[in-house]
Amino acid sequence: MDAAKIKKILNFFKRYSCTDFNDLEEPVLYTVFFSLDRISVSPSIFNYETSLKKCAQGDRRALMQLYEQEAPRLLAVVLRILQNRPLAEDVVHDAFIKIWQNAQQYHSELGSARGWIYTLTRNLALNALKYSHRQVLFEPEFLLDLCDHHAIENEHQKDNVETLVNDPLAQASLNRCLDHLEPQRKLCVLHAYVDGYTQDEIATLLDKPLGTVKSWIKRSLNALKECLQ
Amino acid sequence: MKTTDADSLNTDNNLAGQYVLGTLDKTERVVFEARLADNPQLQKMVNQWQDHFVSITDQLPPVSAPQPLSARIERSLDTLETSRPITQKPTTNFWQSLPIWRGLAGVGMALTVFFAVQLSTMQPELSEPTYIAVLVAPQDKTPSWVIQTGQSNQMQLVPLAAVEIPKGKALQFWTKAEGWEKPVSLGLVKKGETLKVNLDSLPPLTENQLFELTLEQASGSPTGLPTGPIASIGRGVIML
């Protein structure tokens, strides 16, 4: 566990803990921190880049820590797309093997390490769609709730870890930008990303011509890009 | 139509966003991935979009993975470790030459422009290709040919740029799938023509099947095997 992470967790406990950690001896503190390493922490604390670098060096423990950290979230993403539990678990298995094999290809100039991990995993999930006879469901409320930034921010305030270590403004920025899109266009983007629906499926779902959906998505991306800058 | 650098950056960024959303159609996706492999800037755009969008799915309730899954991953890693020394045996075999395959990944702007033009001018769209390969020049990796097969049992070899064939010579089209002992000739290319190959006489096309064009004498290779320099080379992808 790196120093920055220890410091963040230490600050957290100092501010919010039920135990007074200042009274503890340093070796005891370290034991606490190392056991914390086994549980999932907020994505903004976990150092994905270091994790990938260690994997590239053949450090298996790093991969298993990454697994503890990210597997439940990756499984949620993949399961949402495939709607098939055994298949989703297969994909997550394959994803971790591929992360292990390809970790050497990642370097800091490629930007977000977490983005790299999700791109790799989502691609495997999208490729596996051909083996899944999933249903195309229309759940606009579910999707819109998912990125309702007011709700998310409220939740952040409830969750001390999140408010301490996350910059809520940065976290919510994509959600904010999505809010600037017209509801139907926003739904196109969400159906594509969250559900993994194709443009054809979205067009059928929203009862719009394919060309309209295509151009909505392209323009939405341009608008998001501008808003995110 | 003039394309400035800023324009192509914006186009790339939009393509990267569509790639992350998963909304590129099959051909666009294959072409984008071919460019991606060799383009750190493009990869960075993809990772950045992904990092933004993943904040949405971070709101999904996490699904706890069953204990056996991590054990299964560990077992697979064990298997990988024991088999690694055998599979990674270094080889200088031409068919496995790294620079050539690395180069194939560098399919450039020309192809994007080609497909952009094709996609915008060919409305309504042609029947979706079921198999596609992009052939590039071995030296400068310029994409020069595309192979497509559709529903019909015919393969088309389409030039992406003007083709120059020296006098008294011909371009011969070859293919070799994994496990084949030697390449098979698919015919000679005539200037300005799309070569059509009937697939009935061939085994089914496979993923990663090799295609290449070599410069031979006008009547074709005398030996029935490629003898001249490679003009263009690439591997096929199955589109399901």
TrEMBL record, chain B:
Pfam families: RskA_C (PF10099). It comes from the Bacteria. It comes from Marinomonas algarum. Residues 108-230 form the Anti-sigma K factor RskA C-terminal domain. This is Anti-sigma factor. One of its GO terms (cellular component) is plasma membrane. One of its GO terms (biological process) is regulation of translation. One of its GO terms (molecular function) is sigma factor antagonist activity.
